[in-house]
Amino acid sequence: MIRDITFGQYYPGKSLLHRMDPRMKLVLTFALIVFMFVCKSFASLAVIVLLTVIAVALSGVPLKVIFKSIKPILIILIFTALLNIFYTHGTVQNGDALWISFLNGKIEIWDKGVYTAVFTMVRIVALVVISSLLTYTTTPTMLTDALERLLSPLKIFHIKVHTLAMMMTLALRFIPTLIEEIERIMNAQKARGADLETGGIVERAKALVPIFIPLMVSSFRRAYELALAMTCRCYTGGEGRTRMKQMKMKGRDLVCLFVCLAFAAGIIVLNYFAKHETFSIFGMLFFKQVI
Amino acid sequence: MSHAIELQNVTYCYSEGTPSQVTALKDINLTIEQGELVGIIGHTGSGKSTLISHFNGLLKPTSGKVLIDGTDIRESKETLRQSRFKVGLCFQYPEYQLFEETVAKDIAFGPKNMKLDEDEIKRRVAVAASYVGLSDEMLEKSPFDLSGGEKRRAAIAGVMAMEPSVLVFDEPAAGLDPAGRKELIKLITDYRNKTGCTVVIVSHSMEDIAKIADRVIVVNDGMIAMNGTVDEVFSRCDELQSMGLDVPEITRIFSRLHALGFDVPENVYSVDKGTEIIRALIEGRRSV
Amino acid sequence: MSEKLIEIKNVTYTYESENESRPGYTVLKDVSVDINKGEFVAVMGHNGSGKSTLARLCNAIFEPTEGTVTVKGITADTEEKGDEIRRIVGMVFQNPDNQIVATVVEDDVAFGPENLGVEPSEIRRRVDDALKSVNMYDLREREPHKLSGGQKQRVAIAGVIAMQTECIILDEPTAMLDPMGRKEVIKTIQRLNKEMGITVLLITHFMEEAALADRIIVMDSGKIIDDGTPEEVFSKVDFLRAHKLDVPDSTELCHNLGIKEHVLTADECVRKIASLLGGEAV
Prior knowledge:
The complex is a heterotrimer of chains A (291), B (288) and C (282).
Chain A: H1 16-19, H2 22-38, H3 42-59, H4 63-70, H5 74-87, E1 98-102, E2 107-110, H6 111-137, H7 140-151, H8 161-191, H9 201-232, H10 251-273, H11 276-290
Antiparallel strand pairs in A: 1-2
Helix pairs in contact in A: 2-6, 2-10, 3-6, 3-10, 4-6, 5-6, 7-8, 8-9
Chain B: E1 5-14, E2 22-32, E3 37-41, H1 48-55, E4 63-68, E5 71-72, H2 77-86, E6 87-90, H3 103-113, H4 118-132, H5 136-139, H6 148-160, E7 166-170, H7 178-195, E8 198-202, H8 206-212, E9 215-220, E10 223-228, H9 230-234, H10 237-242, H11 249-259, H12 271-287
Parallel strand pairs in B: 3-8, 3-9, 6-7, 7-8
Antiparallel strand pairs in B: 1-2, 1-4, 4-5, 9-10
Helix pairs in contact in B: 3-4, 3-6, 4-6
Chain C: E1 4-15, E2 25-36, E3 40-44, H1 51-58, E4 66-71, E5 74-75, H2 79-86, E6 89-92, H3 105-116, H4 120-133, H5 149-161, E7 167-171, H6 179-196, E8 199-203, H7 207-210, E9 215-220, E10 223-228, H8 230-234, H9 237-242, H10 249-256, H11 266-279
Helix pairs in contact in C: 3-4, 3-5, 4-5, 5-6, 10-11
């Protein structure tokens, strides 16, 4: 059933990551993603991998679940890796760096290509794992809340942060309801012989009209009723509202912040000192022996 | 003559092969005969909605077969398509499926999908509209301008216009007031008397089922728990209650009176019948 | 004499027509009625009789075209006063899906008190109490869309309880529920009134539900046509029939048999018939 999809893929738990202040999580995740793009050497990449592994271990989210988040990007991963391997020519060291050559040099694999491929893959995987950890350990509501609070300084530019956050919450709340509704309408029209599966693009687009119109009509009705219900519950916008769930920075948040800062320093330093050469020599030796 | 609908060993699982797999139907064997009026009862989540979605092939059984007029609906693409027209399915709150500019066009949606010619479509729209009591003037209105009750009737006409040999209603009177409810039940029985069609009604209203059904099927926990005449099913009051179901209030009164030792039958489903019986009893005693 | 909570005086309500050539549609005509503090009042009437409009006037979502609605002495003539009234009179609607705003049960219950600017620790306390009083405390961390209709409706009721309103209006809260959900919700409503002392205005077309109230108001064509105890109202079987309403089967059976006392439940009905028959036993 479509309705079993869980949005925001929250994985319930009580781990350190689950209990962290969502604002801190949001900021740190964002910073980490930036650092992933800054990182240039294998040494600093290793630091990121280490941090990712620690984060996964701390989250208590099973590896099986983590792999599920990588699955959808597998094809992209393989595709970028292949592109890099075959089309990145050049070397990261002096001397002979052309490893393999086929068909009179029409296909060549250079060491730089292999490195770039591995590098990019690891980077993308780390990026996906870190960002899904955020959604695995934080409910969508907490995320929107955190976003609202983090962005609240924007109020001085007359940006309605609260309204935006409210809209996000309502969207999250109503997505499952509307999916159910689509399912229901589709079944009703199919029962009247509507054919949604065959025909060309134009016919298929036309076949969606009997689904789209009732969906719109019912969404407007829902919106109206919801607005009425919210008025009845004294909703008048963000002014003067309090929140039941307070967000408080605790010791653990600061610890996490400092750990991340330390790692960040490591990334920068290693970026600067350790160039590809050292590692590419290892790689070279290893690879040549294998071949 | 073959059965109108026959289910052979039908099992259905949601989200098959995932940890959240749920078996909604377990090895169901069921026949519905031509011209019958069958009531299906069961509490929410018992599997009755899943069951009726098999009647016209909207759901594909995980195992087992569904036959309409003796033909397996999964035999070919064409038999599956035909099953939609042979078994008309009218879901809960059908008014939410209206979408056309006019009521007439909306009713014509089904017949159009059947690829009928213009004249035949026109005829069917007119006939279906007359079954549900929509005037010509209403047919030219936008369905969104109708009242709640009229919308519901227009949507039902949309299914009737396919002239299915079996018409299945899921909670046809949900959300209506008592008068609307009575009207709709009358509309369905009138339709059946006029066309001789097989009708299946899924309902939470034991009163309605008891009044009109020839046969009652009780679905519980994905299985057929009872299958028999109204008398047979409603006499098993305790069992029904253990399944989260009720018997009509008037039936409860009479079975209580019966248990108290009074000479009254237990199978009483309407107030009129009940009144008659008690009056007769009083008369009888007077004359003695 | 009990204290008046809601006073409706000579209220007429006309829906404005979007189309100028068409006249507006008058749904309430010169209605006057009082709701007293602590009462459990049921409002009955067929669809389109004006009962929902009456409800919406009571918590100032609608403004009367003519006449006044006063809640605890406050007349809703400005938006601020409307907000003030809604702090006293809460409302639960028919469709459980369209009134839940949050993705977690307890967050939804907190929505009202949050809007009122209640202290966070106080909100927590109110939310827990409210969820306990509707028997939904164990499911407080669930996602609302995974609940049954009856459970959703109880969450909506908890949302109003947490606002600590004095009165709660329920606009056909059971119309979309199955019999089990309906029982759950009705039990909860009775408890609200009997144990927590909240004034309840229940709009319904189920006779068995109305029979549980202290008082029934019957409406047709925008007018109040009867107002009294369930016993009084349901004794007029033919009158109700004429206004497209029903009476409980037990009531009707006893009425048909000429039993003079007013009967509302199956139990009473069995007793009455038994004594009727027993009294003439051979």
